[in-house]
Amino acid sequence: MISPSKIGFVVACCLAAYASPILEVDDVVKHAWLTVPQGWVDIGPPPADYIVDLKIALKQGGFEDLVGLLHEISDPLHPSYGRHLSKREVEELIAPDQSTHTIIQDWLVSHDISLTSASYSPARDWLSLPAPIAITEKLLSAKYRTYEHLSTGEQIVRTLSYSLPVALHAHVDLVHPTTMFDRMKAMRTTYMLDAALPAAEDIPLSCNTTVTPACLQALYRTSGYVPQAADKGNKIGVAGYLEQARIHASLIPQFRPDTVGANVTIVSVDGGLNDQSLPGTEADLDVQYTEGLTYPTPNYYYSTPGTAPTINDSVTPPQRDEPYLDWLNYVLALPDEEVPQVFTTSYGGDERSPMNGQCTCPSPFRTRSSVIEHPITRVCGMFAQLAARGSSVIFSSGDGGVRAGTCETNDGTNRTLFQPVFPATCPYITGVGATYQIAPEKGIYFSQGGFSRYFDRPVWQAAAVPPFLAKLGTTYAGLYNLSGRAVPDVSAQGYGFQVVVGGQVESVGGTSASSPTFASIVSLLNDYRIANGRPSLGWLNPLLYSIGVSGFTDILLGNNPGCGTTGFNATEGWDAITGLGTPDFVKLQELLGFI
User: Is 286 a catalytic residue?
Assistant: First the structure.
């Protein structure tokens, strides 16, 4: 049994009589479900001595100011373009007001909780502390239960409702883990190869179905570029989850012989593993292609736990069910010089899954007034912090066509509804769809695209997206959010990638192949800029949708079926299967090299 004293939890008994005005009013529900969310079943109470690793998101002081500055430094037509913020500047902008810290401390002390075991994020906008389950339930007027996912057997400890004193609602965005039932998955699928098709000029015939780094270099015109800023601070990072191991001996020497002897720096985040006896296809795919396309640029692989283990005894399991928070807090705490200029991630989940059930309070599906109270919007804001510091954050758009997991609404009516994938829908992230074949490239059927139900369409999509909607007309009316942030932003090859896993070559596909490919192109552009005394590109989206458009090859063929429909079609201009198209490095180099 783990006792509170063994984990450093302190009960301040002498403060039991502490009087605080926030105790003079009843608690008010912050968030609650009417029923257990779809796909989960209540299997009983957690162990009596279970420890909850509470994370309290405090109201940030100047997030809107941060976003305003981020738009300025990311707009190629603004005088401040490229003037990325420092770690200190970001933290000073978003730091909560002291009154927030004071009232939170009063609240905790009123429940006989000392802050001795608490810790803060670098900006002091997240408060973390371990608390016994009984104390947590009293603190949040909640009743925690253990829930098991019907298809995976994954177990998590959650509550269907939690409350806070009314005075705290203005100071706390959310508390986690409470009512968020989320599942992360890797964007990866394995496919059989098709018969050979005609090849494009100067690109081998085999590249139509068997993709190697050399194929991508030829297709996206990076073959003639040799990185120049490897010793000037340019870096690329791969974020890995779900205990995926990247195997040191698998750097595809047969596909890129000059990388023999190259190494990737492995970074463990919050106990993340990199077990060399357990090769992971996703990890090897990501790293082999970022290394194969950007060598000798330094590559970093961040291993973050992402699966909550089975809860089968009284020992507290590691709470790894919201790994984005752990990864972001880790990266945001790094000194500026240690943060890679581009990150790629091939994981995501149904955008609606954090809200998967019938809610008794306002939700983003009914009003946007409560959006900030939900984890995905707060996590999206953390990506904005990273972008403000000069990093481009790239995510796979998903592998479900127009669906992610399920096509049904979560309002009890079970209506058909297209589902995009988060985090790709976060506006501070560049979402990457998938193509296949090379003469010409086509949007592949699994390339996920659509429109967010959490995030409004940003101003930088105001010109690109409406023409697509006009062509669509009333087709699929009611199945998607007409005014939502549109994904994907861009696309890249995502089929037939040759990956060495456990010493064997596998052929894999998915937008998880597209994301590291596009991120590598961005890294090479950063290399060119840094070598010529320019800053990194940072947040890409305002740039891509303005002067960057002509640096992409428009994809005109393909569709992404799902939910009983043929999905969206690739068409001239932006579309919801391939975005703006696939990158042409030489054109982008000319357009973006010296702005």
Answer: yes
